[in-house]
Predict the structure.
Amino acid sequence: MASTRLTSASPGTFVFQLSLLVVLLALLGLAPTARADDCATVLDSDDTLRFIPANIEVPKACKTYTVTLRHSGKLPKVAVAHNWVLVKKADLAGVARTGMTAGAGTDYVDPRDARVIAHTKLIGTGEADSVTFAVSALRPDQEYAFLCTFAGHSPIMQGTLTLQK
């Protein structure tokens, strides 16, 4: 019976081979550009009118980005409901005004308002909602903000969204 002897490459050789594979995949356009978990975030909201975290950085390599909003408060939805609305920073005040007047039937977002880039539905305690938007809709030289447009929340409940360079 013939014996087979396995040899192992040195760790340096393995790292070199792996590096070559990554370079080859990149040249072929097959290298991963962003992991799925890099193209999503979960925000928490509560009865204290805040988004946690209040800042989101979107990797430029993502094709789409998903934001999930959760409500961990204790008060009833009729008192403290939240949504997540993405806009250009310059449009924040105007979208807040039109959202408040749009009312609960449209989740406090005017469906005709072209300044709204993306938004979740209105959620209450224990609920969550997600929205996915195209990263190509964002510009690196533009400042973005997000807010809750539920009546009276927008002056306090705000955050920033940045497209990574």
Remarks:
- The longest strand covers residues 64-71.
- Residues 3-11, 13-36 have pLDDT under 50 and may be disordered.
